[in-house]
Amino acid sequence: MKAAVYYETGKPDVFKYEDVPDPAGGPWDIVIEIKAISIEGGDVLNRAGGPMPAVPHIVGYDAAGVISQVGPKVRNRQVGQRVTTLSPFGSHAEKRAVGAITSWLIPDKVSFEEAACVPVTFGTAHECLFEFGHLQTGETVLIQAGAGGVGLAAIQLAKRAGARVLATASSNERLERLKEYGLDEGINYAEKDLVTEVRRMTNNQGVDLVVDGVGGEVLQKSIEAARHRGRVITFGQAGRGFRRVDVGGLAMGDKTLTGVFLGAEIATDRVQKIINQLLEDIAAGQIRVPIARKFPLSQAAEAHAYIESRQAVGRVLLIP
Length: 320
Ligand SMILES: NC(=O)c1ccc[n+]([C@@H]2O[C@H](COP(=O)([O-])OP(=O)(O)OC[C@H]3O[C@@H](n4cnc5c(N)ncnc54)[C@H](OP(=O)(O)O)[C@@H]3O)[C@@H](O)[C@H]2O)c1
Description:
The protein is α/β, with parallel strands linked by helices. The chain folds into two domains: 147 residues, Alpha-Beta Complex (Quinone Oxidoreductase, Chain A, domain 1), CATH 3.90.180; 142 residues, NAD(P)-binding Rossmann-like Domain (Rossmann fold). 29% of the residues lie in helices and 27% in strands. The chain is built from ten helices and 15 strands. Strands 3, 4, 5, 6, 7, 14 and 15 form a seven-stranded mixed sheet that branches. Strands 10-9-8-11-12-13 form a six-stranded parallel sheet, with helices on both faces. Helix 3 packs across helix 4, helix 3 packs across helix 9 and helix 6 packs parallel to helix 7. The longest helix has 15 residues. It starts with a strand and ends with a strand. NADP nicotinamide-adenine-dinucleotide phosphate (NAP) binds next to helix 1, helix 3 and helix 4.
């Protein structure tokens, strides 16, 4: 099969489009013919400097496709079914083997392209807002990096839950694009001070919940932007600034800071049901999957470079 591989981490041009052996698949695995690959924020970070269990390495968490092989221990999947899948690596290819436990059947009305973006992107947003963020109707939530994949999913889910939704982005144009997904008020953090703006928008109180996938300096400001007894969720390092955070401000405001990693509970019935329900919600038109741009798999380098140019609003896809 063809795959976008690399032998060393670094800039997007580390990608090579090569022939590699087809994945074998173990007894608990399925093998799929990939139809659409969602480039996750973590894929970009992994390509820049993440672990490589072997070389050539195939990066990538999420991909959707058609089952071509089912391991002998798998009871609930059949050849020919449409599924979306999650695995720590292997999405940037024509085929992948994944544990059947991290595959979800795609409803008829949902495309491969939409489904590819669901497990990590919408699953993480849901965990941050509800399971760990305890978001309630009528509360105010601040979504950091609202134009990113998880950010845009979180805006939609928070709005649907009846929250007032604030979000940040690096330009006014990017913020404008978020309004159709449920953004109430945007903060262009390249021009304005985040904490001052949040205070202005919340009658000097701060927000009930912050969902922060940027980390570093931004996470520090997220803690400041939360109200007394506010909750801050940290789930990512999109800002690439691995600064240590001073947690002193938490105690002063009776605030909590919680980390979220979707992978830690992905195999639980609870998360399995959430991802199935999110796929049904997309089929029913209740939430949308914003797709910024599509590239052929052979142009993985260009696609990653496009994401790093900060122009994408929503997900960038690769199509084998
Ligand atoms: N814990 C988990 O289970 C989990 C799950 C999914 C993702 N993650 C992590 O969460 C983070 C966000 O994921 P994502 O998929 O939403 O990412 P994404 O789609 O690539 O979006 C990231 C956003 O971050 C903003 N950003 C801020 N500083 C940046 C910088 N220096 N370089 C590039 N972008 C920057 C950009 O928006 P602006 O230009 O508007 O600022 C961009 O849209 C990543 O670190 C990812 O690894 C963790």
